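input
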Amino acid sequence: MRGRWSLGILLLLPGLTAVAGAQSSSSFMPLDSGFGPLHTASPSQPVPLLIEEFAARESQFEHALENYTYQRTVKVETLNSDGKPDGEYYEVDSIGIDSHGRHYETVLHAPPSTLTRVSMSESDFSDIEHRLPFVLTTQALPRYDVSYVGRQRVDQVQTYVFEVKPKKIEKHQRYFQGRIWVDAKDHQIVVVDGKSVPDDLRRGHQDLSLPYITFRQQVDGQYWFPVWTHGAGTLHFSAGDGYLAQSVPMAETVTYSDYKRFGSSVKLLFHGQQLPNTGQPPKPANPPPSPQPRP
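output
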């Protein structure tokens, strides 16, 4: 996100001039009661082998996703002092597949943005497409340090927890930094919690991002697809060159729904239980054994 506030005057510019030191308020989203105690004992299986196996499964998932169409809804809000929205970016896109087998986007609904204190940057749109639904494949693995944290129950799913951070930050590249929860049975990522890095703090290019958490669900009982991402926090923009400092509370929600294998329809499942393809399943009286999106 880029700030847009200068000496009390709204600037309709893509960015602002600011000094280094701007930042978001946190690098993680808080975990709720669906996450059980963290057990840090070493796993029975060697950690390098676990990492190799889940990265291979992530590669399979990434390839499978190329054959699915779906709908993506993005809502980004700035919040006032009462925590109520005072500006919104909203867009609904259909993700289709062309005759060459490549994904393309069709905008279904995009009312004019009412954001005034920040503006969406190219990094924001790139993060929405590539990093919020984070995938750690065998090909991407050499770019990251991955360390074992422990085992933790997420709803009714037993998971391995790993810390993930880039080995080095290369120019013009974006990365994920945070934690991932990997299903201990399927060896696929089911929850991601962290943020996209690095924040751009250069004078005249200040661009900050929110921490976020992404939940996945099973599609056709096989692969875990992202269905819900939520980010929240306060972005702190520094003052400089005549610009006032400002802190902007924000919330961001992305839902992924209506997954269909190209040329067919699919069922969205929680370990065999069919659910409405809405991106956020209702919470039943007896929760199915799968991590669930948090409102």
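quick obs: The radius of gyration is 20 Å.
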